[in-house]
Amino acid sequence: MARMKFLCDADRCIECNACTVACKNEHDVPWGINRRRVVTINDGKPGERSISMACMHCTDAPCAAVCPVNCFYTTVDAVVLHSKDLCIGCGYCFYACPFGAPQYPRVGNFGSRGKMDKCTYCAAGPEADGSVAEYEKYGSNRLAEGKLPLCAEMCSTKSLLAGDGEIIAQIYKERVLKRGYGSGAWGWKTAYRETVAI
Amino acid sequence: MKQAFKSIRAVAVALGLALVAAAPVLTTSTPAEAQQTGVAPRTGGAGDSGRNPTADSVNEEALFKNNDKLQGTVTLPDSKASILVQPQGRDYRQFREGWLPWIGGIAIIGMLLALAVFYFTRGRIRLDHSEESGRKILRFNAFERFSHWLTASCFIVLAITGLNYIFGKRLLMPLIGPDAFASFSQWGKYAHTFLSWPFMLGVLFMIVVWVRDNIPSRVDWAWLKRGGGFLGDAHPDAGRFNAGQKIIFWIVALFGIAMSVTGIIMLFPFSAADINGMQLAQYVHATVGVIFIAVMIAHIYIGSLGMEGAYDAMGSGEVDLAWARRHHRLWVEQQQKSKGAHNPHIGPRPAPAE
After folding, report:
1. Structurally, what CATH architecture does the domain formed by A4-192 represent?
2. What value does the mean pLDDT of chain A take?
3. CB under 8 Å to B334, separation ≥6 — which residues?
4. pTM for this structure?
5. Were A19 and a residue from A65, A129, A151, B204 both cysteine, which residue would form a disulfide, CB within 3.0 to 4.6 Å?
6. What ipTM does this complex have?
7. Contacts A110 to B, Cβ<8 Å
């Protein structure tokens, strides 16, 4: 089994936001919920870089650890998923997540959050693969169809890579060696406690 | 007059031209200054057209040397989204899963054990009978009792639902299963957020009605030095509230305010604090909360099981005069002096059949 990861090659990202649009469209993500976003560091200054960020599907995920109802689980592909049937919308996972991945619909007064929503690595949730209930809660399940996350598949500059961690790290390494520079595998140290050594 | 105006205008135009001419001189910077602003100095020659794009590119490792979190700009109308990486989430996890269950467990189980030891060694503090037994004196009026029970009933629900956030998945979930536990926790969350408001109101009421009787005095020091009568049979003098009760009052007031402030920050997430502020609010709210619960367990014990006659003060509001004179002699004397012997509350009454 693969160990699925995301890697954003910031030296290739052109901040076109196609990944965020692809994600929104593929999963019918409601208004106000952003499973993926593009953050620009040093915007307008020399050396600015944009990074597409979503759930990094951490090793030993902090969200899963702090959840008071244990609604998270990790799949055999090391994708971190959660059950919206169990989630109570307490918001703790957002405080623990280093990447700001968990999102909540506002459902009532006093910060009452609805069921948490986040990037599923296009692997949906605990319901039966491809079922209507699964799509309504989590969006489509591309992984079950043998496809990779749409954000990375759509990426026009192939900046955003998705797939087995070792394979995408190898692709990134070759790029860096060939072009002679690289700004690093953003978030890898925090998410996986490892980085791509060149 | 017209002539004077013309000459003023001429001077103004001349000054303006002089400033425009001086501007390039003022803004020209040295290469050293350019480097400080992050722009690489142009060296000219062949390298000029093809600058290495990595020369000044941002790099995660370098950024983390100067920042504790990575923040950028984002096109979304959501300030939280602009934070790219905040490793403090790992610290929050360490607190919530590493420290908090231990702090809470030790505080609460430690208090229960201490009370059990006290109960089995000292036993109930009994009502001493005297010739005044059976007569009643009003200790807490209706509004005082309302404020107390408003706060107390909310506190019990808030404490149970609050502890559920920490210990529920460890203790309750294995017993009732994940689905039932999630439903319970969902309702617990709503109870915790909505009952926080009457709780805060109750704390406010109690502070207002009791603060003047809880100012520390010299009598309290003597009371504390004699162990408050908990050890041995002594009954040191006390006013309306003894030093122990004053300590409880101030704990409720200060902890109540701390819980309210951090609670309000969490009731309106990200409106008063950023991500690290929200984490800090949780640290304070959870730590103060578990200690608050431990203290309140002791308060409940001494107000019910621990001392005979004490519960009446908050139950019916009237206490046995013999009990009051034993425990709050100065207060009874003051009451009798100010209200006189004809006070309807201080008079012979048939003793309840027990």
Report:
1. 2-Layer Sandwich (3.30)
2. 93
3. B239
4. 0.83
5. A151
6. 0.92
7. 193-194, 267-268
